[in-house]
Here is the input.
Amino acid sequence: MASDFILETEGLTKEFRGFVAVSDVALNVRRGSIHGLIGPNGAGKTTCFNLLTKFLPPTRGSIRYDGRDITGLKPAEVARLGLVRSFQISAVFPHLSVLENVRVALQRQRGGSFDFWRTETLLKQFDDRAMALLEDVGLTPYARLTAGELPYGRKRALEIATTLATDPQMMLLDEPTAGMAHEDVDRIVELVKRVAAGRTVLLVEHNLKVVAGLCDTITVLTRGRVLAEGDYAAVARNPEVIAAYLGTEASSVGVPENV
Here is the structure.
């Protein structure tokens, strides 16, 4: 029987020449949930993401995904298992159209190659699915536009579409609303809710209103360690969290006054 938890770490630690960026982290992400990873700047959130998706090897500890030990795997290998991430800085091909960006991601269905040199006729077989994904993220009107012309918030939506094109079982989103205007934040929040249906989402996010509205469970990191875990109400009442996180950043992220 499958575990209730799709992603589990034990003793996860990363050291850089004596500096401990992540220390003995035990993370348990429940299947089908939206799980938030928060903390002050320098808490180790992005390093933790890089460990989970194998962009960094851990110094110590283990990572299990869907019941399988993935500690020693490479990034492409864990992506093929269905554990796929986005990045804090939007990563799209700026000179390709919005449709072509999604189509490139869909080409993984043919195997491991991205056939830029194939005929347009052959590549058009992916267009229907690409357009469906663009509709999912609200980008249908922008399909023929060059990706570099998109506003920032729409680029993040495009990145989510390309992530969805890999048909992930679990998505890791790194700062999905970073640098966005208010209307873009609301749009991305609704988008994450939609794409989370039938999937698991782990996200790093600084905007605590976003975290409060999205996440079933929140893990708070500080100085590379897990400080607290629970739902938003529980972690927001935790005195250590208030001191380490809310007390220094509440005014900048718009935390409600009664938190």
Q: What stands out?
A: Residues 248-259 have pLDDT under 50 and may be disordered. Residues 96 and 205 are 28 Å apart (CA to CA).
